[in-house]
Amino acid sequence: MAEAAPLRAGIEAARLDPGLYLVATPIGAARDITLRALDTLNSADILAAEDTRTMRHLMDIHGIPLRGRRILAYHDHNADRHGPAMLAAIGGGKSVAYASDAGTPLVSDPGYRLGRDAIDAGLAVHAVPGASAMLAGLTVSGLPSDRFLFAGFPPTPLGQRRSWLEKWSQVDATLIFFESPRRVKQTLELLCETGADGRNVAVGRELTKRFEEVFRGTVAQVSDAIPDGGIKGEVVVILDRAGEAEPDPDRVRKELQEAVKTMTKRDAAAAVAQKLGLPRREVYQIALQLGEG
């Protein structure tokens, strides 16, 4: 996290209404935090974080004093222990500010269970919005932003990742997902294998940080541009939506010939149409032309 001069040093703590405050924090540049987020961290009765050291460092950068407050660690491994205590404190009239390591809590970060439990208990939950790698990536991608889907992280096992990509790459929206910097080249190669090699994509790494870089082009071009060993830093992938697909009869027949070995022509047509992003009726017509056997 880049250093920044204190912005709010010495400000008085204002009283916050009881509730859970989900605070977005910078994904890189420390000055990307909002004034409201600083006010919330300064004023909350109780502070909670995915990593207490990260929050303490952020507060030190911006001159936010602890004033005797503890920072509670809250993550997937201790939710049963610390979650009920924070909810009880909110029920008793306290304000709790929770932040993940970077970006917006609950967006591929811990905190979902805490927010859900607070809502289920009838407690107030407030968003303190700010930085998000998902939206930062979409902003600099140059791809359509009127309709998009955030799909999180793809599975690690190769076969599951291929199936995941085949499924989500066919949605009628710009697709956004996170990926490991070591696996991103392999993931782009899998997209090429599913027929998405000619679609536009943007791969952003270290967004808002000193070594920010964005690869843009077709999936095949960006895959070639990324070194075999992968890249470094946090990665977000933005894939353009599928266009109106034109069926390649030879490829459709090949896929159908494999599919009909284990299913009916109707079911095979449905499966191949979904895999290739083609109209089911057109694929079924091709299936009907296949020889028996």
- Tell me about the largest β-sheet: 5 strands, parallel
CATH level 4 superfamily of the largest domain: Tetrapyrrole methylase, N-terminal domain
Radius of gyration: 24 Å
> Low-confidence parts, pLDDT < 50 over ≥5 residues?
1-7
Strand/helix succession: EHEHEHEHEHEHEHEEHEHHH
Structural class: alpha/beta
Could you say what the CATH architecture of the largest domain is?
3-Layer(aba) Sandwich
State the end-to-end CA separation. 62 Å
Shape: elongated
The oligomeric state of the chains shown is single chain
Strand-residue proportion? 15-25%
The count of strands amounts to: 10
Strand order of the largest sheet: 3-2-4-1-5
**Main CATH class of the largest domain:** Alpha Beta
Question: Mean of residue pLDDT?
Answer: 90
Treating each run of at least 4 consecutive H or I residues as one helix, how many helices? Answer: 11
Percent range of helical residues: 25-40%
